[in-house]
Amino acid sequence: MYILRLVQSAVSAGSHQIDIDHSFRTLSFRGHGWSLPHQHIQELHSFLLKNSQDPLDLPAQYLAVALNAALDQNPERLHLVTWDGDCGLSLSFVGHQEGLEMLTVCPFSTPQPQTCFTIVHRSSWFFRKLPELEWLYKQCSLSPTPIFVNGIWLLPDFGQPKDLDTLRLYLPFTYISSSTSH
After folding, report:
1. β-bridge mates for residue 115, sequence order
2. What pLDDT score was predicted for residue 10?
3. DSSP string covering 14-83, please?
4. Is the pLDDT of residue 32 over 50?
5. 104-108, 110-114, 142-146, 152-156 — which is least confidently predicted?
6. pTM summary value
């Protein structure tokens, strides 16, 4: 899954909050305070093969894996925008075409550093395939960075069973089965 790699990239880059919003076919992942060097975005595919021990390369390595995994889903379109506070880059994939654009005007409502990864899937099958919220909760609820999914904070419960039925009400899909015990 690419979402875990996005979380790893944002956390390792020092993001102070992560917002994940999704609807019928669209997933938007925003890391506040997460910005990557422009050279890393321009050379993102090279980080798939790079085995750097430099901690400054980790966010780009995780993002490269996330991007590769997301593109493997054959999305309708994918858009990555990073803003460092002064300028930014926009990387887009529509079909088999890739575009890279330098930004001089902040595309976000606030000009603070942030990165947004948006993917539009061809169908809603992606979100029906796995209990995404439960998976994300199990993997990321102890993150040092607060993570919000559709506005709901994934708080750790330190081993206590979590009632996810309340959270499911906000999701645009239903789960066929649940492994959560009540």
Report:
1. 31, 82
2. 95
3. T-SEEEEEE-SSEEEEEEET----HHHHHTGGGGGT-----TTTHHHHHHHHHHHHHHHT--SEEEEEEE
4. yes
5. 152-156
6. 0.81
Q: Is 173 helix (H, G, I), strand (E, B) or coil?
A: coil
Read off the tokens for 27.
């997933």
Question: Cα(108)–Cα(106) distance, rounded to whole angstroms?
Answer: 6
Work out whether the CA dihedral 137, 142, 143, 148 comes out positive or negative: positive
Task: From 120, 168, 103, select the one nearest 180 (Cα to Cα).
Answer: 168
Residue 14 — left, alpha, or beta (φ > 0 → left; ψ -120 to 50 → alpha)? left
CA angle centred on 18, ends 124 and 3, rounded to 5°: 40
CA distance 164 to 175: 11
Residue of 137, 140, 142, 145 lying closest to 162 (CA atoms): 137
**Token pair 């803003």 is at which residue?**
83
User: What's the pLDDT tens digit per position in 53-88?
Assistant: 888 899 999 999 999 999 998 899 999 999 999 999
CB 89 within 8 A of CB 42: yes
Highest mean pLDDT among 43-47, 102-106, 163-167, 169-173: 102-106
| Cα 128 from chain centroid (whole Å) | 18
| Residues of the chain above pLDDT 90, percent | 51
